[in-house]
C-alpha cells in the first residue's frame, strides 16, 4: 500500500470502530497483524488505543485456528448467507482503487481456512460479476445488518 492508501486504511478503521460502538449488538472486533502494519495505517492521535477493539501484533491465524476463520473473498464459491457466532470473519485491510484478485482467497488457502463471499452477484446484478471494490466500513456494516 502506498501512503495515501495507508492513511485511508486508518480512517476506515476508525469508521468501523465508530459503527461498532453504535451497533445494538456490536462485534468482537480484532485488529490483527499490527506488527507488520506501518504506524501510518493507524490513527495519528493513537485513538485506536481507546477503541473497544482487541489489538493483535500477530496475524489472525496465529491467534485463531484455521477452522475458526472465514476469510471474506469475492473469489470464493461459498456464498455468505448467515453468520456463525463461533467463527471469526476476516475482512482484509487492503485499501486500493481496484479489487486485487485472489489475495484473500490465496491467504486463506495457504493456512487451510474457509472463504466466503458476500452475495453481491445475487443481489446487485450487472456489477462487474459481483466484484465491487468495497470499503472496510461498507463490508462491516453489511455484516452488522445480518448479525
From TrEMBL:
Keyword S-adenosyl-L-methionine attributed: yes
| Catalytic function, reaction form | guanosine(9) in tRNA + S-adenosyl-L-methionine = N(1)-methylguanosine(9) in tRNA + S-adenosyl-L-homocysteine + H(+)
**Source organism of the structure:** Strombidinopsis acuminata
Top-rank taxon, per record:
Eukaryota
Query: What is the protein's given name?
Result: tRNA (guanine(9)-N(1))-methyltransferase
According to the UniProt record, one GO cellular component term is:
nucleus
Quote one Gene Ontology molecular function term: tRNA binding
E.C. number(s) listed in UniProt:
2.1.1.221
PROSITE patterns according to UniProt:
SAM_MT_TRM10
UniProt key word Kinase: no
Q: Which CDD domains match?
A: SPOUT_Trm10-like
Keywords of the record:
Methyltransferase, S-adenosyl-L-methionine, Transferase
- SAM-dependent MTase TRM10-type domain span: 1-147
Q: Name one GO biological process term.
A: tRNA N1-guanine methylation
Amino acid at each position: 500500500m502506498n501512503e495515501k492508501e495507508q492513511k485511508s486504511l486508518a480512517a476506515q478503521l476508525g469508521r468501523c470502530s465508530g459503527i461498532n460502538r453504535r451497533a445494538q449488538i456490536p462485534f468482537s472486533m480484532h485488529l490483527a497483524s499490527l506488527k507488520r502494519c506501518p504506524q501510518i495505517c493507524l490513527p495519528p492521535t493513537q485513538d485506536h488505543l481507546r477503541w473497544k477493539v482487541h489489538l493483535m501484533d500477530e496475524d489472525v491465524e496465529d491467534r485463531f485456528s484455521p477452522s475458526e476463520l472465514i476469510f471474506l473473498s469475492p473469489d470464493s464459491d461459498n456464498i455468505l448467507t448467515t453468520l456463525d457466532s463461533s467463527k471469526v470473519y476476516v475482512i482484509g485491510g487492503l485499501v486500493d482503487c481496484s479489487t486485487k484478485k485472489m489475495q484473500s482467497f490465496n491467504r486463506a488457502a495457504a493456512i487451510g481456512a474457509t472463504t466466503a463471499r458476500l452475495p453481491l452477484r445475487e443481489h446487485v446484478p450487472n456489477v462487474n460479476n459481483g466484484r465491487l471494490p468495497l470499503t472496510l466500513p461498507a463490508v462491516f456494516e453489511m455484516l452488522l445488518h445480518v448479525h
